[in-house]
Specification:
This is Small CPxCG-related zinc finger protein. With 82 residues, this protein is an all-beta fold. 0% of the residues lie in helices and 27% in strands. It contains no helices and five strands. The radius of gyration is 15 Å and the shape is globular. The structure holds zinc ion. The site of zinc ion (ZN) has 8 residues, from loops.
Length: 82
């Protein structure tokens, strides 16, 4: 997997989103998560790969989170309506 080209002269924080499996740190579990959105990995017009993303809420503590998820991960029981 090719590394993203970064410009050293670029100022400001560079956010590197490391794909992580959805997990509620407050509860120490993923069993209470309800997935609200899932965007599969895709390739942008410029040829850059963008990892899959998911957003979810933990129904146990109400924590909402959204971030990139690892290749091949998808919400349990997920299926396409298309
Ligand atoms: Zn929780």
């Amino acid at each position: 997997m090719p590394f993203l080209k970064t410009r050293p002269s670029q100022s400001g924080p560079i956010r590197l989103a490391t794909p992580q499996r959805p997990f509620c740190e407050a509860c120490g579990s993923d069993e209470f998560l309800v997935y609200e959105e899932f965007i599969p990995a895709r390739v942008l017009a410029a040829g850059a790969a963008k990892p899959a993303e998911a957003s979810y809420t933990c129904i146990e503590c109400g924590q909402f989170s959204a971030h990139a998820v690892p290749d091949g991960w998808e919400p349990p029981g997920w299926f396409w309506y298309a």
